[in-house]
Design goal:
about 180 residues, mainly alpha, about 0% strand, elongated
Length: about 180
């Protein structure tokens, strides 16, 4: 019978701050992430796409001013985070369908719903618009528009916004 004996001196020497720092740096290098930046940008873009009124463009602009070599990575991360937030909006709208039925009697409400139903998932191309884009994703879910086409159109619109805004801001403030 073999009895396992722990060697605490080996385990204790492995978990030093220097080893942990080296491990973290190698993990970040493996993931090709800077120490600060892309993960923060992802969270900012995600939160800004939900119904919380926060903008992610300043985070994207700041990251690119500090790390211009991350242009396409940052655009991709911001688009992914913002699209994921739009997906959350869609699901919130889908779940809120019962609650919103009691407000569906106004003429304006019916006209907007008819317009959205006519456009279908293509209406989610407008998800990039300030103030109305995020609620638009929620209404798309409430109308039970097809989820994956909505996500694709959201991603296209949000990607176009990030490209346009970033190039404009970098052109205005080049240094």
């Amino acid at each position: 019978m073999t009895i396992y004996k722990s060697t605490p001196h080996i385990a204790a020497s492995f978990y030093t701050p220097a080893h942990m720092q080296a491990w973290l740096e190698s993990l970040l290098a493996l993931l090709a992430l800077p120490q600060f930046g892309l993960s923060t940008l992802f969270i900012a873009a995600f939160v800004s796409a939900t119904l919380v009124p926060v903008g992610s463009e300043p985070a994207l602009f700041g990251l690119l001013k500090l790390n211009p070599e991350l242009f396409w990575s940052a655009i991709g991360v911001a688009t992914a985070g913002n699209t994921l937030g739009g997906m959350v909006d869609w699901w919130m709208g889908y779940a809120a369908h019962q609650v919103a039925d009691k407000y569906s009697h106004s003429k304006h409400h019916m006209r907007v719903l008819a317009w959205l139903e006519k456009l279908g998932p293509k209406a989610c191309l407008l998800a990039w618009l300030p103030l109305v884009g995020d609620p638009l994703c929620a209404v798309a879910g409430w109308l039970k528009l097809s989820f994956f086409p909505c996500v694709i159109y959201m991603a296209i619109g949000k990607f176009a916004r990030y490209i346009t805004m970033t190039i404009a801001l970098l052109h205005i403030w080049p240094n």
